[in-house]
Amino acid sequence: MKAETSSRFQHMVISSRSLFIPCAPILLPMIEIGEAELPGIGKKYTIDKLKDGGKLVLLLHNSGRRDIYYFEKGKESPTVVSLNDEEARRIGAVLEGAFFKPTPTDALELLLSELIIEWVKLKPGAAAVNRTIGELEIRKKTGVSIIAILRKPKNIPNPTPDVALQQDDTLVVIGQREQFPAFQKLIGVE
What we know:
The chain has 5 helices and 13 strands.
């Protein structure tokens, strides 16, 4: 199958027969999807400008079968995937976010922009040495959380409140910038 695009018509060659089909573009934010009726076949949707420079053509057959054609930039032969109706609906649900809803990068960056992660070494004589995380009430008193303790010979990820802090431990902590002065004062590493 070969597809060519003009500004007004979509030209498809199917089994050496040419069909000229007017396209009605569907506009989504930043993506234009061409839609065309294929008499006796079904519908065709085309995305001409993928982010990677490729092109995607979706054929939805009246029988329920879906064919996905991916034309890699600079190549004429597409990669083709054919799905039955049930497979297509399941994959559609996955793509729609029914099973997993990723956090948009912008929202994640905004959230993380307010947090900082620090590595704090406990020196001999620090107030937190030989005391447990729970005893110190670090999160309750400062809002900072210890997410790991780097300790030889074995590191402790996600330490529980009953873990005693030791001299030369490196605490991996997370919190907001304004919480760190109280944290440093509490553990004695100002």
